[in-house]
Amino acid sequence: MPLSTCTTALLTTFVQRQNKIQNQFGQWVAWMSLALVLITALVVILRYGFNTGSIALQESVMYAHATLFMLGIAYTYQKDQHVRVDVFYGQFSEQRKAWINLIGTLLFTLPAMIFIIWAGWDYVATSWKIQESSAEAGGIAYLYILKTLIPIMSALVILQALSVAAQSWLTLNSDKADSTPISVSPTDENSEGKL
C-alpha cells in the first residue's frame, strides 16, 4: 500500500530526528567507557600500589558499567551493531531486510521492552520509595538512581525501535522501480528534510 506524501514526510522526519538525537546521546554516553577505564585503573592502583581502597569507588565501577551499557543499547541498535545471527540476512535484498526488521521490531523488540517496563516498574518504584542504597557500609547511597536506568533504557529502545519500524515501512513503500530504499542517515547533518 503506497504511503501518502504527508505520511512519508512525517515518518521520514521522525526517523531523521530520532536517529539524530540517539546518535548525539550515544556519543555522549560513549564517554562513560573512558570513565570506566579511569575508575577501574584508580581502584587497582589504590589497592595494589597503596594498599588502600574505597567501597564507594569500587561500586562506582559498577555504576559506570551499568550506565554505559544500559544507555548505550539503543545507540547500538540505531547503528545496527547489536548481536545478530547473520547467516542469511546480509545476502538479502533491501526489501527483504526491511520485512525482517519490521516484523522483528513489532514481534520481539517492542513487546520485550514493554514487558521490561511493566515488570520492572514496581522494582524501581520500591527502590525509590525506600531510597535504596548500597548494602555495603561506605557504599554509594543512590542505588535507586541506578535502577532507574531500567525503564530509561527500555524507553530509549522503544523510541529507536519505532524509528527502525518506520524506516522499514518507508523502505517497503518506496517506489518499487527504484531499487534504492529511502535513506534517512542519522549521521549526515545535512540530510534533514531530504529523501
Would you mind describing this structure in some detail?
The protein is 69% helix and 0% strand. The chain contains six helices and no strands. Helix 3 runs parallel beside helix 6 (149-172). The two termini are 19 Å apart.
Brief overview, please?
This protein is 69% helix and 0% strand. With 195 residues, it is mostly helical.
Q: What number is the mean pLDDT?
A: 84
Q: How do the SSEs run, as a string of H and E?
A: HHHHHH
As for the number of domains, it is 1
Shape annotation: elongated
Strand tally, please? 0
Q: Give the helix proportion (percent range).
A: 55-70%
Instruction: Please give the radius of gyration in angstroms.
Output: 21 Å
Low-confidence parts lasting 5 or more residues at pLDDT below 50? 177-183, 186-195
Quaternary form: single chain
Q: Indicate the structural class.
A: mainly alpha
Distance between the ends: 19 Å
Largest sheet, in brief, is: none
- Treating each run of at least 4 consecutive H or I residues as one helix, how many helices? 6
Q: Which strand-content bin applies to the residues?
A: under 5%
